[in-house]
Amino acid sequence: xxxxxDADNMQVEVPLRELMPDLGQxxxxxxxxxxxxxxxxxxxEADAHRQQAQQVQQELRRSxxxxxxxxxxxxxxxxxxxxxxxxxxxxxxxxPGRGKVTAVDLPGLRATLEVQLKHDGQATTKELxxxxxxxxxxxxxxxxxxxxxxxxxAGTRRRPAAEAGAGAEEAEPVEAAPMRRRSAESRSARTSxxxxxxxxxxxxxxxxxxxxxxxxxxxxxxxxxxxVASGAFEMQLPLSDVxxxxx
Length: 247
Description:
The chain is an alpha+beta fold. The protein is 32% helix and 32% strand.
């Protein structure tokens, strides 16, 4: 069970069981190991790409849901503004949450209201001049029940009696995020302003506070304002609140 073989000018006796023809087994094993490593690496990369795609899809769904909500809020707000008249008692986004309209300046985006304030148990009447964006708030503690229904919010949440003090549970206002506005001095606002000034009436623009498209009507460069139309309603906004539509 021995064989005599030549190895480096020497003759060596080797057991037969240790002899095997070289069919390239070591090279095949290396190729298999390399292929296995490549497959595992591709599987890890595919899993990472799949997780990333799922995250992007989730973010997209959340973004679309938020845009739809803001569009519904904007339409609700526009309808309320279109029906606004002197003498109406309307919700406002500042204390005390409601006021009686005494004057409306839609081109100037302002309204004057009488509000009842209480101090040390005494009620006083005060006149406020607010931007029309502060009328009919769609979010926050002073939003109307209709606005809350549009937003899918509960009107109030309950605090346990232990927190509220004596008696049954007490209602607590639901806080919400304020309307998103842009500073006219921000870099994005300056960039958008330059692009807006190059647009022509009839083209689409994006209204930042309401996350909604509207149609450009005219631009007043001296006052740094823009007039846009949504449906049959026109409104004037600061140029910093509008940017070109990004398809």
